[in-house]
Specification:
Blueprint (H helix, E strand, L loop, with lengths): L1 E5 L2 E4 L12 H8 L4 E7 L7 H5 L2 E8 L1 H5 L2 E3 L2 E3 L1 H5 L5 E5 L10 E7 L8 H14 E12 L3 H7 L4 E4 L2 E6 L2 E6 L3 H10 L3 E8 L2 E7 L3
Parallel strand pairs: 3-4, 3-8, 4-7, 8-9
Antiparallel strand pairs: 1-2, 5-6, 9-14, 10-11, 11-12, 13-14
């Protein structure tokens, strides 16, 4: 997604997407332990970092990200291609833009939202993402979400000449544009999830990340 935060800075959140080769072992194990469901939404699917683990636990997988992220050529599972091209011909794999899911209500059994909110610099859009996740879930559907609240590189990056503070993170200017990297405290993260209407079932802190399992009442 693109976010204008100042008169001269447009955040390109796609720059923060991590590839399949940089999976977290904890997140991988978490996803492998999930029960199988019919429909799953991977919100902020990026470079399909956890595609294999999420796809193995669902009949249909819907990948949601910006049009830019879905259509640009990038390294996906070791090959230069777009997300659209990668999913072509796969009947159980569907690619949607963030605008497409506005019309989908009570549609999914599970939403996976990993490391998305901390690269969104606008608080109201963080809330919007969680509200959309809530609306598109079926009653008793599950949200599994994570954010970073601590990062050993954060202090180093904040001292770089091309970095400046912004809200709960830093803006970094580079050749590909401006990126935002934020840290969201666990309590603030849980509050955002509750405010969207979810009941929190479980929270786990691990290696600087906060993982939350939550349910849509009903």
């Amino acid at each position: 997604m693109r976010y204008r935060v100042t008169s001269c800075a447009i955040i390109r959140s796609e720059n923060a997407a991590k590839p399949h080769s940089q999976m977290s072992k904890f997140a991988t194990n978490l996803l492998q332990q999930l029960p199988h469901v019919d429909r799953t939404l991977n919100y902020g699917s990026g470079k399909l970092r956890y595609l294999d683990q999420i796809e193995a636990k669902t009949n249909e997988l819907f990948l949601v990200d910006s049009v830019v992220q879905n259509t640009r050529t990038q390294k996906i599972l070791g090959k230069k291609q777009s997300v659209i091209d990668f999913s072509a011909g796969k009947n159980s794999l569907h690619v949607l833009s963030t605008k497409d899911i506005i019309r989908l209500h009570n549609h999914f059994d599970r939403v996976v939202l990993f490391n998305v909110l901390q690269v969104v610099p606008i608080f109201t859009i963080r809330q919007q993402i969680l509200l959309r996740s809530f609306k598109c879930l079926k009653p008793q559907g599950q949200l599994i979400a994570s954010v970073q609240y601590r990062n050993s590189d954060f202090t180093r990056m904040s001292k770089m000449n091309n970095a400046r503070s912004f809200k709960d993170g830093i803006l970094i200017d580079h050749i590909r544009g401006t990126s935002f990297y934020g840290l969201i405290k666990p309590l603030a993260f849980q509050t955002l999830i509750r405010d969207a209407g979810f009941d929190i079932d479980r929270t786990k802190l691990y290696d600087g990340s906060c993982y939350v399992w939550a349910t849509k009442p009903g």
